[in-house]
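Summary of Year 1 activities. Much of the first year was spent building the evaluation harness for sequence design. The harness presents a backbone, in tokenized form, and records the residue chosen at every position. We chose the following record to illustrate the format because it has been used consistently in internal testing since the harness was completed.
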């Protein structure tokens, strides 16, 4: 199917630069998490991929060729602002959307039934969309992105407002599509989910990509901390330990090259050591440090 590549994408509105030389690649069969603060440029990026907006400079390509009107028909898109027809019935709407993307009437009906069943809304196929719960509307919106058998998936906050069961269903669908070779890129503020689900993650800040890699690779860029949990220790027991730069509860930041055994000896003298281990930053901690410009 090929890789989706964004190369040096820039976009401005007057004096305000929304994207500034943004570039990243979503590989064939990869789940790519695209994360950033509100206003960082995620939705603008997705709209440029779709051709809804034109970039001021840079290119978007898939499988080695620039995305054009024909190849963009192969994209399944789920917008953050849901775009379903509220008074149209679910089944009728999915068939209509599949037909718009070139599916035959028979294929469109079959695909609509398949995705309604898989996403748990088959019993609501005859209901108008506006009569569904927000979570079920979300499921139908995903079905609308999938009903034409897309070769690329671009999803803007697909997990927003979903209950845990629906999150599991949607997660499995995305895993299955990536296993078929589809490049899948989605944005989300649920960073624990991104960390668990994605092969790689890109963090955008101020319209530029500031970190890209697997969670493990990003964690290696952050500073490890020592988790030292001591029961019965008096307040301030670690204040004079050599090499300790900072303490946040049971997490200790050590100076480069510092010997952690100094902290362990002090902890053993202060009380009962229940846990003592190195801990890499979570994706949430990395995100916070990267978007604020601090060092993890």
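For this record, the design step produced the sequence shown next.
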């Amino acid at each position: 199917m090929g890789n989706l590549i964004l190369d040096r994408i820039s976009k401005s509105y007057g004096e305000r630069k929304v994207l500034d030389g943004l570039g990243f690649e979503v590989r064939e069969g990869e789940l790519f998490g695209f994360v950033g603060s509100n206003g960082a440029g995620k939705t603008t990026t997705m709209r440029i991929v779709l051709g809804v907006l034109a970039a001021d400079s840079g290119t978007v390509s898939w499988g080695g060729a620039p995305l054009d009107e024909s190849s963009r028909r192969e994209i399944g898109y789920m917008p953050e602002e849901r775009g379903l027809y509220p008074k149209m019935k679910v089944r009728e709407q999915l068939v209509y959307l599949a037909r718009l993307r070139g599916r035959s009437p028979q294929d469109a009906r079959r695909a609509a039934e398949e995705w309604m069943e898989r996403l748990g809304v088959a019993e609501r196929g005859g209901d108008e969309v506006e009569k569904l719960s927000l979570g079920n509307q979300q499921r139908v919106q995903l079905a609308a992105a999938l009903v034409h058998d897309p070769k690329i998936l671009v999803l803007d906050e697909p997990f927003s407002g979903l209950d845990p069961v629906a999150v599991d269903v949607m997660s499995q669908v995305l895993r299955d599509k990536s296993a078929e070779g589809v490049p899948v890129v989605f944005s989300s503020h649920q960073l624990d989910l991104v960390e668990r689900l994605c092969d790689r993650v890109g963090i955008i800040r101020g319209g530029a990509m500031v970190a890209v890699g697997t969670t493990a690779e990003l964690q290696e860029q952050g500073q490890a901390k020592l988790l030292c949990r001591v029961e019965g220790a008096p307040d301030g027991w670690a204040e004079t330990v050599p090499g300790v730069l900072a303490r946040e509860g049971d997490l200790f930041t050590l100076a480069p090259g510092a010997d952690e055994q100094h902290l362990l000896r002090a902890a053993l003298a202060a009380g009962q050591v229940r846990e003592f281990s190195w801990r890499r930053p979570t994706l949430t901690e990395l995100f916070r440090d990267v978007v604020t410009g601090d060092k993890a």
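The first strand starts at residue 4 and ends at 13. Quantitative recovery figures across the full test set are reported in Table 2.
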